[in-house]
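Notes to self after the call with IL:
- keep both proteins in one doc
- input above output, always
- annotate only the second one for now

Protein 1:
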Amino acid sequence: MTAPLVDRVIATARAEIGYREGKTAGRNNNKQKYSPAVPGLEWSNWQAWCATFVSWVALTAGASALFPRTASCAAGVKWFKDRKRWSEYPAIGAQVFYGPGGGTHTGIVVSYTADTITTVEGNTNGNGSAEGDGVYSKTRQRRDAYVYGYGYPEYAEGIKSADPAWADEAPAKPQKPSTPQKPTTPSKPKPYAPPAFPSGLAPNRATPSARGLQRALKAAGYMSKSIPEAANYGPATQAATARFHQAHPAYRARGTHYDPAIGPKGWAALHRLAYGK
């Protein structure tokens, strides 16, 4: 059974606790792994990265459509408010924003009580700074003036919130079966098998297989869906392939930083990422 999306978001965030950014001459420098892995936010490396971390978590957990993809806390606040997904009450899996107008810092709520929220936050530290050195689990007072509010992702299963106005979106409680069910042995799903790597697929070549590469890049989030498909491995396809390689350097050609050419192993990995279960 597939875990609820909110659980995958929280698990993805928690798995990063303990990660630390880079240093230059012994000083933290805001260089981290998240910016290069989020298409469209590659430019944000070496800068404050709390919002970028949340975007990475959403992308990695398969929830990128439910969160703003931005390096700006203020833009994130606007994104949720524009969609009327905003509350002053915490919720499980919500994006919390701090400081005046919510523009200072952000993180993901993993639990709350009547008095506190527990979060996972990037670019903070043991003191809860908005300019820290890594990913930490933080417990903060709900009614602290530093807490500005919460953006509610529109999870398909609903959202568990402390806000009475959102009671209708609470996840449904599982129903107990009326009669005992006999145990059944589930059939094992067949593993996803990527299509064979097409011959002749290379940058600056016209080939029908370029369309398949473009569809996979779009499905995996590395190429804009607004770009029309074409039987040509042109500049847009090359740039999207390079973004995939930047996020997954194991498939990049050895000794290169910018690699626009997909190879057999990268082809298989991209298709598993786009279509695998």
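Protein 2 (the one to annotate):
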Amino acid sequence: MTDPALPRAPEPTVPAPGTAVPGRHDLPSGPERLPAPERAAPQVTTYPVSFTGSAGEYFRLWIVNAALSVVTLGIYLPWARVRNRQYFYGHTWVDGHNFEYRANPLKLLRSYVVVGALFGAYTLSQQSERWWWLSALIALAFALLYPWLVAQSMRFQAVNTTHRGLRFHFDGSVKGAYVAYGAANVAASLSGGWRCPGRGSCSAGIR
């Protein structure tokens, strides 16, 4: 029994035959998507590069490095190289900050000792026909490892270079080094040099 005072709920209506019934595909799927706003072009700020070194200062540095390298029979060469780079980097300014070179001369000395020992063995082996195979082996190893050595050297220089406290990074791959310094140099030698007119064109493929 229902209370006559309460309003009665409307009875459901049945659509007439042939009338379209709104289904799920007729309902709005959601708010209309607004077109994405156009991204503003990134602003590129350029800063001039200035060098504050002088020929007189560098000459004094160079003469001291040369004298110490001669007195120490070449042992001072890594320290001389680091001092030279520190002078040039320290006098190169960008955005009010100079560059810094923080390489450890002892690491360079170890590399110099290895290269010097191999060069000495190569030179001595060429003096005797009995040891010709040793000189050929050293030359072949150097030719095969040269692209890898170049990549390692560039990575070492980048890691030890800083600007505003931030270190540089070299992300070139060993494969790219072999393409740039291996295949490109072979193509240049076979073509008489026209495939590699400059050093930059052959080394641009290190990626």
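Annotation: The CA atoms of residues 28 and 175 lie 55 Å apart. Residues 197-201 have pLDDT under 50 and may be disordered.
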